[in-house]
């Protein structure tokens, strides 16, 4: 039997606010989080689902100044990265039958991944565009196009690798489970399979927003010498991310608007590369994570 969870309901004449869930795919599992809790569910080699729960409290909840627009976005980005790393660490060790990974090994892998991301999506596009001897807004647009091309090539390559393909399937399972939850339907595999593997709040859509916002930012920056221009493309990553976070929140608030649906369509289209249709056992893992977060949030 499934469970029916409504994201909105009336109780004693009052409307209860929607519970906004987010999450990500991890190794053989899914991480789902609400404002106060994080749950990671992982399918172990023995086919059982291992669950980790953790209470979280954002810095923006402790310090009111960090709730201001832009600042809250920067804080959210760093906290999402931190919780994502914890989820990956837990899932990696949960799926290993013998030798476990140490925090140092996971930390080194994350540092290398971040360095590679900056190199691929910030340094390479800037260097390649510089070879074309362009200036002004045209330079920024061409740089953004090259950045998107590198991203598409990277995602397409990753989808061909078996290990990453399974992560993309769990990514699809996460989206279908959240979409089913937000639709208020009875939560079971059969119902969840009817829902889309695309979701407007996905980090994939966020990447596209970052690319567009970066064009605007770099267009108003002073035309300094080569190394300085490259430096502020890296240093401004948190700021651009914070602004993009606000845009993403705005798009979710007005998601039923026809104009907004047109604007978010490219981001949803990009998710066809970062998600795959999940297997039923993957959906079971995502459902367990969603149900556990719901239980914790309502307790």
What does this structure look like?
- With 299 residues, the protein is α+β, with helices and mostly antiparallel strands.
- The two termini are 21 Å apart.
- The chain is 63% helix and 11% strand.
- Helix 2 crosses helix 9 and helix 3 crosses helix 4.
- It has a four-stranded antiparallel β-sheet with strand order 4-5-6-7.
- The protein has one domain.
- The longest helix has 28 residues.
Enumerate the strands of the largest sheet in spatial order, edge to edge or round the barrel: 4-5-6-7
Largest sheet: 4 strands, antiparallel
Distance between the termini: 21 Å
Helix-strand makeup class: alpha+beta
Reading the helices and strands in chain order gives EEEEEEEHHHHHEHHHHHH
- Helix count, per DSSP? 11
Estimated share of beta-strand residues:
5-15%
Number of strands: 8
Question: What are its keywords?
Answer:
299 residues; alpha+beta; two-stranded antiparallel sheet; 63% helix
Question: Quick recap of the structure?
Answer:
By secondary structure, the chain is of the alpha+beta class. The chain has 11 helices and 8 strands. The protein has a 4-stranded antiparallel sheet with strand order 4-5-6-7. Strands 1-8 form a two-stranded antiparallel ribbon.
């Amino acid at each position: 039997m499934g469970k029916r969870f409504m994201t909105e309901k009336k109780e004693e004449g009052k409307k209860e606010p929607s519970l906004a869930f987010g999450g990500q795919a991890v190794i053989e599992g899914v991480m789902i989080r609400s404002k106060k809790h994080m749950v990671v569910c992982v399918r172990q080699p023995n086919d059982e689902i291992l669950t980790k729960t953790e209470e979280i409290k954002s810095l923006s909840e402790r310090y009111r100044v960090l709730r201001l627009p832009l600042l809250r976005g920067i804080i959210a980005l760093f906290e999402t990265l931190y919780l994502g790393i914890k989820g990956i660490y837990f899932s990696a060790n949960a799926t290993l039958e013998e030798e476990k990974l140490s925090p140092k090994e996971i930390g080194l892998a994350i540092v290398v991944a971040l360095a590679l991301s900056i190199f691929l999506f910030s340094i390479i596009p800037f260097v390649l565009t510089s070879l074309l001897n362009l200036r002004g807004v045209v330079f920024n647009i061409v740089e953004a196009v090259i950045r998107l091309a590198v991203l598409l090539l990277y995602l397409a390559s990753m989808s061909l690798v078996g290990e990453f393909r399974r992560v993309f399937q769990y990514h699809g399972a996460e989206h279908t489970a959240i979409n089913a939850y937000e639709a208020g339907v009875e939560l079971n595999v059969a119902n969840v399979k009817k829902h889309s593997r695309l979701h407007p709040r996905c980090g994939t859509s966020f990447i596209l927003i970052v690319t567009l916002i970066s064009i605007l930012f770099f267009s108003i920056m002073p035309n300094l010498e080569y190394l300085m221009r490259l430096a502020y493309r890296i240093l401004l990553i948190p700021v651009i991310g914070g602004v993009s976070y606000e845009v993403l929140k705005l798009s979710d608030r007005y998601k039923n608007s026809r104009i907004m649906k047109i604007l978010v369509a490219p981001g949803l289209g990009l998710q066809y590369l970062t998600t795959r249709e999940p297997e039923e056992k993957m959906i079971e893992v995502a459902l367990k994570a969603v149900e556990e977060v719901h239980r914790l949030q309502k307790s």
